[in-house]
Design goal:
The chain is α+β, with helices and mostly antiparallel strands and 177 residues long. Helices cover 31% and strands 14% of the residues. Helix 1 packs across helix 3. The chain has a single domain, classed as Transposase IS200-like (Alpha-Beta Plaits), CATH 3.30.70. The relative contact order is 0.19. A five-stranded antiparallel β-sheet has the order 4-1-3-2-5.
Length: 177
Amino acid sequence: MRPTREVFRQADQTYFVTFQTARRKCLFRRQSWSSLFLQTLEKYMSQIGLHDFAIMPDHVHLLLSPLVPLERAVQFVKGGFSFQAKRALQWRGDIWQPGFSDHRIRDIDDWDHHIDYLFKNTQSARSEGRAIRGATGTLRLHPLPPWLKPQLSAAANGGAEAPPLQNQFGKGSMQAE
C-alpha cells in the first residue's frame, strides 16, 4: 500500500525531492546530459521555486518550494528533461525510474540539514564522477523561504517566554475546593 501525499497547499511548503535514473545508469557523467538538465531546471524555475539542487551521476536532489502541486513540479522537471533528451540527444531508452521520494522541510534546522547534505553528497561524488551543486552554479536560485526563517521570540524583547496558563477545568467550570 502506497502512502498518500499531503493535500497541496498553495504556499508555505518546501520539499527535498530525490529521483533516480532508470536502472541507476550514470547518465549525468556526460557534460551534454548535465547541461541539458540545467536548461530544463532553468525553464521551469518560476513554477518549481528552486532553492538548491544536486545533479549526481545517477540521481538528482531538488530543494524547492513549488507554486504548483509537488507532483506537477516533478513532472515538469522529469518529463521536460525526458522530452528534450530524446530530441536533442537522440536517446531511445528510459531515463527515469518511476516516482520520486520527498521530504517536507519543517523548519530552519531541517533546511540547514538538507543544505549540508547537498554539499556533502556532491563533495563525495566528485571523486566518482561528475556532480553539480546548484549553489555553486550559474542558475539564479530562489532565496530561503520566509516561512522557514527563524522567528524572533518575544522574550528577546522583554516579553513573556510562554503563553499564560489556561484554566485546567475549562471555561465556566467549577473548581473543587
